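User: What would this chain look like folded?
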Amino acid sequence: MLQNESVIAVFGDPHETDAAVKKLASAGFALENLTVVGKRYHSEEKAVGFYDTRGRIKFWGKRGAFWGGLWGLFAGGVALTVPAVGQIMVLGYLATMVVSAVEGAIMVGGLSALGAALHSAGIPRNSILQYEQAVKADGFLLVVHGAVEELVRARAILALGNPSRIDLHDGPTTSLSGSLHKLRTPAGASFGARSA
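Assistant: Here's the prediction, encoded as structure tokens.
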């Protein structure tokens, strides 16, 4: 079932992203409600790739251990090239929507396959462009899908990491954090004003 409420955290480091996934999992969040999006490899790498051995995907390159470890946690994923963003990996919940967008089952005017999948999950167009730019700049998106009450808890857990931004997308409204380096707030405090 498609969930139109989500929290999206943007991380600049694969280790921070991996730690955040593990914190969410240990807090009881189901992995099937998570998505990780990022570049498959760093732009300076020469030899990169992945292969399947007995149902287990193996990656190599600078980010091979990161993607290989996450692939083992998630039920599936997709590797593709997105125009203007580059070669990316999408693991988890949104992976099937990205595949549907590539195959033409989801069409949203002017958006990439990643953008169409995010839009289908209720993310506003202006936020999608910011997320694509973050991935293009070697950032990682960690998306949590679910009920609003759980997303508030997820946002608090994600804020304990080192994300550059956290946004709560609640159907027609979005609660934006902006830059978290400027907005560090005590636990339980608001991360930003709601806007329509």
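Residues 5-195 form one domain. If you want, I can go into more detail on any region.
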